Amino acid sequence: MIDRDRLAALRAREDDLFVRLHPRSAELAAQARRSLLAGVPMPWMTRWPGSFPVFVDRAQGARFTDVDGIEYVDLCLGDTGAMTGHALPEVAEVVADRARHGITTMLPSPDAVWVGEELTRRFGLPRWQLAMTATDANRFALRFARHLTGRPKVCVMDWCYHGTVDETLAVLDGGRVVPRPGALGPQVDVAQTTAVVPFNDVDALEEALATGEIAAVLMEPALTNIGIVLPEPGYLDAVRELTRRYDALLIIDETHTLCAGPGGCTRAWALEPDMVVVGKPIGGGIPAAAYGMSLALAERLDGPMLGHDIDVAGVGGTLTGSALALAAVRATLSVALRDEDFAVAVPLAERFTAGVADAIAAASLPWHVQRLGCRAEYWFCPPPRTGAEAAAAVDEELDGFMHLWAFNRGILLAPFHNMALFSPHHSEADVDRHAEVFAEAVTALT
């Protein structure tokens, strides 16, 4: 339904506008290419629309300002890393104070006790460990699962994303498990380490578990990195029943689904995982993650965790659980990601969803917008039930145009998909501005 010639012409116009708006970023991008691979500190920073990266000067609350002095409504929020809002004063003060009194010592700080108790209160799992990133937490959880079960393989959902964990960068190609497109340098044939099943497919999951090879099922309770794909009624109950029947551990990754509430989907939907992973948002921008486990698992791990060789067990990291990270997590969870914060952010996501849906309906487009808690996302297809269905609908030309159109008008969406995330610092005016800009883009296209 989209005229591709018209789309190309609109994109060219937006590209020209982008260049005119960002002369200082263009200068910095050219300079960065002389010392940084791809001209950026991390390769995914090249995924933004526009002919060069935009450099940020400062960020606060729900806004940031680039080096050319342009202010933006930030609906990306660091792809959940700043889901609390940028530069929380309470976190900034605690981090500055902690830096003056020692950042890392390889010994626990008193904040560790508070953090462990708060994570238990929120998620219901009684034992916790810290990690630097959710990738690390997922990696450690899978290592523990293989150790505890004596089984070699893990099971993940088709088109999932759990960070840079090698075993999870796998998809289905017909009935074969193959590396996810774009995954660089797989260390082994991923089919040796991983079973992949479609989300919402109970029969496929049982078939994988029945082999007796699966140590753990690692999954998001709703897919979030290939559009929002919600679980069908009864699906998560079936996953829990099957993993128990076949003695596989259930690991729930709440890195992105923390948008569902203070305890993520685990608390909101009364899930009963064996382990849960919590990532980016809990540190208020300071690198931190955590993973919790049931008492039964913790008791079985007491021996290895207290053993002489735990420092070479493949779990840990010298800077993990630092005094700085623990201080940041304590400060963040004390003032953010609480029930009262979601009470503001979730209605904003509902308003965003309604505005986008209205524009889609007015243009009679076969698109949809989906919401999970304070996160919402539109996709260029009817609502999918699996990751593969969502992946098949990816339209990079259209996606790039929609992002750039919004960005040129002062709104930042997440770069890898059309996600908007809301914090208590956003306003209804921010939401309505996006609805206006989105509707204008649809009108220009159709």
Could you please describe the fold and organization of this structure?
This protein has 446 residues and is an alpha/beta fold. Helix content is 40%, strand content 16%. The protein is built from 14 helices and 16 strands. Strands 4-12-11-10-9-5-8 form a seven-stranded mixed β-sheet, sandwiched between helices. Helix 1 packs parallel to helix 13, helix 4 crosses helix 10 and helix 11 runs parallel beside helix 14. The chain is globular and about 65 Å long.
Give the helix/strand layout.
Elements: H1 4-21, H2 23-32, E1 56-60, E2 63-66, E3 71-74, H3 89-100, H4 111-123, E4 127-131, H5 134-149, E5 153-157, E6 170-173, E7 176-179, E8 194-197, H6 202-209, E9 214-219, H7 235-245, E10 249-253, H8 264-268, E11 275-278, E12 289-293, H9 295-305, H10 323-335, H11 339-362, E13 368-372, E14 375-379, H12 387-392, H13 396-407, E15 411-412, E16 419-421, H14 428-445
Parallel strand pairs: 3-15, 5-8, 5-9, 9-10, 10-11
Antiparallel strand pairs: 1-2, 2-3, 4-12, 6-7, 11-12, 13-14, 14-16
Helix pairs in contact: 1-13, 3-10, 4-10, 6-7, 11-14
Write a concise keyword list for the protein shown above.
single chain, 446 residues, alpha/beta, 7-stranded mixed beta sheet, 4-stranded mixed beta sheet, 14 helices, 16% strand, globular
